[in-house]
């Protein structure tokens, strides 16, 4: 084992993979939002669903690609995307408890377990992107 400390690929690469998977998940939400725009009577809810998924997907994918390339912006965008995703999931729960439904929720059935499950990869992404080895990864890169 070398005396040189890890460059952070062990946290940076998994953070990138999780960010990209989260981005793909939200791209599916973009497609769902587009379908809602085409057929939902509540245009505001459909537009909100579409735009929020576009925002989160764009930030997570940009961050994930940046982390794979070992660029500092990748870490920042990944952290931001994970925070946005967590805020979105918590908003679904909080607003749903007050009868305000979005992101495809149309009735009083708030999938608390499902939404909590969505938080797990977002938290893991946030933690992996935030730790010091990932910071070293984006400053030292692949070399």
UniProtKB/TrEMBL annotation:
Q: Does the keyword Transmembrane helix apply?
A: yes
Q: Which domain of life is it from?
A: Bacteria
Give the keywords, sorted: Membrane, Transmembrane, Transmembrane helix
| Residue ranges of the TM segments | 12-38, 50-70, 82-106, 112-131
Name of the protein in its database record: DUF4383 domain-containing protein
- Source taxonomy lineage? Bacteria, Bacillati, Actinomycetota, Actinomycetes, Pseudonocardiales
